[in-house]
């Protein structure tokens, strides 16, 4: 017999509050505590369903201390429901540490699956879903981030990234340096009133989001690269074309040359010269 508590991983809505399973509701009512990443968000859900279970915060900034307390409670046969800010706990939130520690302590961990932004975004994107790669939030550390962007550039599976609205433009611009030409779906506010799925290639999307500053929750889905194509070194002509596209979307020429040169594995100086030559030819 299990002399310890149980950690329930409860998926909660990623938008519409009605988007919750009956089983999750029952568990949220039944457990001793709910450990929530964002108590302000979770309280709205609990109020909506008249659930009065005590709430404990468990987030990035208290995960060590609170994690130990939660494990202690679980060791004392308490049942805890873990909920993330939205969706399935454990994906791009501190849930992973608590799950890992619970397993280490022989505490039962059980999943109540349901909404998940990554799954909603990848399915609605229309890109192949036989295999997909989930990258979550890209690292904020320069070196690590560049490595991830490079990996994404060489990915021949559909890719899903989570992003904050104020960083969307910067990330789209950065991606240009690694996956020029690929189709992207920017999924915003899925299942909510202002849901928007904007599809297109990077220059078009950059232009669009420059005009309409994005708000809300965002997942970016990228179509897989063609393996053979990924290996081919692009020509100067093709690179110059991509620079023009970026410029049309509002990126400064010098920056566009730098980004595209990096992707095509060319020297910025040579690419810049090619563009100047093209301009001169055009003006002749
Ligand atoms: N564990 C959660 C899940 O399974 O969906 C994700 C938690 S993560 C902290 C939150 C991120 O998920 C947001 O910053 C956004 O990138 C993405 N996200 C959440 N809700 C979304 C929505 N309604 N539409 C698009 N993306 C969403």
Number of domain modules: 3
Main beta-sheet strand count, sense and barrel state = 5 strands, parallel
Q: Ions, cofactors, ligands: which are bound? A: S-adenosylmethionine
Mean pLDDT: 90
Determine Rg (CA atoms, Å): 23 Å
Helix content: 40-55%
CATH class of the largest domain: Alpha Beta
Order of helices and strands: EHEHEHEHEHEHEHEEHEHHHH
Give an overview in words.
The chain is an alpha/beta fold and 284 residues long. It folds into 3 domains: 6-115, Cobalt-precorrin-4 Transmethylase, domain 1; 118-225, 2-Layer Sandwich (Methyltransferase, Cobalt-precorrin-4 Transmethylase, Domain 2); 228-283. It contains 12 helices and 10 strands. The protein has helices at 22-30, 39-48, 63-75, 95-104, 117-125, 142-153, 168-179, 202-211, 227-231, 236-248, 253-264, 268-283; strands at residues 6-10, 33-36, 55-57, 79-83, 108-112, 132-137, 158-163, 183-188, 196-201, 218-222. It is elongated. The termini are far apart. The mean pLDDT is 90. It binds S-adenosylmethionine. S-adenosylmethionine binds next to helix 5, strand 7 and strand 10. S-adenosylmethionine is lined by residues 14-15, 84-88, 91-93, 116-118, 121, 162-164, 187, 189-192, 217-219.
In short:
With 284 residues, this protein is of the alpha/beta class. It has twelve helices and ten strands.
Outline the secondary-structure elements:
Blueprint: E1 6-10, H1 22-30, E2 33-36, H2 39-48, E3 55-57, H3 63-75, E4 79-83, H4 95-104, E5 108-112, H5 117-125, E6 132-137, H6 142-153, E7 158-163, H7 168-179, E8 183-188, E9 196-201, H8 202-211, E10 218-222, H9 227-231, H10 236-248, H11 253-264, H12 268-283
S-adenosylmethionine (SAM) binds next to α5, β7 and β10.
